[in-house]
Design goal:
With 124 residues, the protein is an alpha+beta fold. The protein has one domain (26-123). 17% of the residues lie in helices and 48% in strands. Strands 1, 2, 3, 4, 5, 6, 7, 8, 9 and 10 form a ten-stranded mixed β-sheet that branches. It is globular and about 70 Å long. The chain starts with a helix and ends with a strand. The relative contact order is 0.19.
Length: 124
């Protein structure tokens, strides 16, 4: 193989690997719960959680993890606020049950927020 072909092959492989690396990345953030919440039939205890999502717009797949393990999976709507949230925050609703339902997750210094869909939530 000539030097030119070898260089071209190396450049092509590097390009393909960089595309594959970016295609597999998920957006992520964190949330801290100070009180128990429900996500569908899953009850989350107070603590720190990692939130990963894949997709944009109205159809986002969300994984909520603690200690490297997925504890809940749901779908959500990714919304853009006018201004970045000054800190990580959660919005809950306690109208229908004794335990608050998780409705929205805001991420510090980001305009993105996840609005959860209660009817499609599932336990992992």
């Amino acid at each position: 193989m000539t030097y030119t072909k070898l260089c071209a092959l190396t450049a092509a492989l590097a390009f393909l690997f960089s595309i594959a690396a970016f295609a597999g990345t998920k957006d992520q953030g964190k949330m801290q719960l100070t009180d128990p919440v429900e996500i569908g039939s899953t009850h989350l205890k107070p603590g720190n959680y990692k939130v990963e999502w894949n997709g944009t717009g109205n159809n986002v797949q969300v994984d909520i993890m603690q200690h490297g393990k997925t504890v809940a999976t749901t779908s959500a709507r990714l919304v853009e606020h006018q201004k970045p949230s000054p800190y990580d925050a959660v919005v809950t609703d306690k109208k229908m049950s004794k335990v608050a339902r998780l409705d929205e997750i805001d991420f510090g210094n980001r305009t993105e927020a996840l609005v959860l869909r209660p009817s499609t939530m599932a336990k992992k």
